[in-house]
């Protein structure tokens, strides 16, 4: 379950950020998770809650936004939602596709007291 | 109060991975992150590769496994340096684990390190460990639905090995459909059907590896 490693990464980031701002309590953690990561949101929340016990993040709400998988064709410029993980341009069938979003694994912002 | 953070959660791992990559670059060593399910044939492929290439290339192996040293013992018999990492239940290797064992290897004499990751189609795909490229092994007996079920590990791989093609007549695995799905997920990926049992296709794999080593050493252009 790699969600535990990711939860540890989140905890490290939020505790460091909170300390830098002299926060005493972290109430909300906003995460951006791309559709093409293999993170299971419920496992991540469960893992985070376990790791955050006895820290200032122990009652934080973990709020996850899933970012859709979007590609952009480098040949014709078409931007499209990637369906069925097919990284071929639906317009010109080019295979030269840039992944615009969907691989995010980031802490967006914190709400602290 | 709201604090904007916008930090990549895997940043720390990626920093260690980047430092490893720099070390391998300086030493001119090609590093392969070998991925795939338990039982897909990663260790068998590695054994065949070492047997065929150990006179041509100086190879070392880092073996990732949850608890045992069974794979490392198999590799050791082929007379190449091997280091075991036990993750103690962890489902993937991370960059720190590689960093911690590197002093066990003499980087000055090596051409290639193959890191056999923990058998798993999910977690290892998310963690860079300083490799030049990921190679994913999928075997015929796992079923042709796997690429679409676990797309990331195929998207991240520079080469996908379809192992156990000798078993195609005994399964309902649709090779064409699997190849179509893999190339849709990763257009341009090197796709290598092989059988570690019969040796079919292995020569192509060996030549691919030799070429990657030459590219790494700057002896051949991409």
Automatic annotation (TrEMBL), chain B:
Keyword GTP-binding attributed: yes
MF (Gene Ontology): GTP binding; GTPase activity; nickel cation binding; zinc ion binding
InterPro entries documented for this protein: CobW/HypB/UreG_nucleotide-bd, Hyd_mat_HypB, P-loop_NTPase
Gene Ontology BP terms: protein maturation
One Pfam family it belongs to: cobW
PANTHER family, A to Z: HYDROGENASE MATURATION FACTOR HYPB, HYDROGENASE PROTEIN ASSEMBLY PROTEIN, NICKEL CHAPERONE
Family to which this protein belongs: Belongs to the SIMIBI class G3E GTPase family. HypB/HupM subfamily.
Cited NCBIfam families: hypB (TIGR00073)
Protein name (database record): Hydrogenase accessory protein HypB
């Amino acid at each position: 379950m790699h969600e535990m490693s990711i939860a540890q990464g989140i905890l490290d980031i939020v505790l460091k950020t909170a300390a830098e701002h002299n926060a005493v309590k972290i109430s909300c953690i906003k995460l951006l998770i791309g559709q093409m990561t293999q993170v299971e949101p419920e496992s991540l929340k469960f893992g985070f809650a376990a790791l955050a016990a006895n820290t200032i993040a122990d009652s934080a709400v973990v709020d996850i936004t899933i970012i859709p998988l979007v590609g952009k064709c480098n040949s014709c410029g078409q931007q499209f939602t990637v369906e069925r993980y097919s990284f071929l341009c639906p317009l010109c069938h080019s295979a030269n596709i840039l992944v615009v979003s969907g691989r995010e694994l980031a802490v967006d912002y914190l709400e602290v007291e | 109060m709201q604090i904007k953070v916008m930090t990549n959660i895997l940043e720390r791992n990626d920093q260690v991975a980047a430092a490893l990559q720099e070390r391998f670059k300086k030493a001119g060593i090609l590093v392969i992150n070998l991925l795939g399910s338990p039982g897909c044939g990663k260790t068998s492929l590695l054994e065949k590769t070492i047997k065929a290439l150990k006179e041509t290339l100086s190879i070392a192996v880092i073996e990732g496994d949850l608890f045992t040293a069974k794979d490392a013992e198999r590799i050791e018999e082929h007379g190449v340096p091997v280091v075991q990492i036990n993750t103690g239940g962890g489902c993937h290797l991370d960059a720190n684990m590689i960093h911690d064992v590197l002093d066990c290897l003499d980087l000055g004499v090596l051409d290639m390190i193959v890191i056999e990751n923990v058998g798993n189609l999910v977690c290892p795909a998310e963690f860079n460990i300083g490799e030049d490229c990921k190679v994913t092994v999928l075997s015929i007996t796992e079923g042709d639905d796997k690429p679409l079920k676990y797309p990331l590990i195929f998207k991240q791989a520079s080469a996908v090995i379809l192992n156990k093609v000798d078993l195609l007549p005994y399964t309902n695995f649709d090779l064409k459909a699997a190849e179509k799905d893999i190339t849709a997920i990763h257009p341009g990926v090197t796709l290598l059907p092989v059988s570690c049992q019969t040796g079919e296709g292995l020569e192509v794999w060996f030549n691919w590896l030799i070429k990657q080593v030459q590219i790494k050493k700057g002896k051949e252009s991409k």
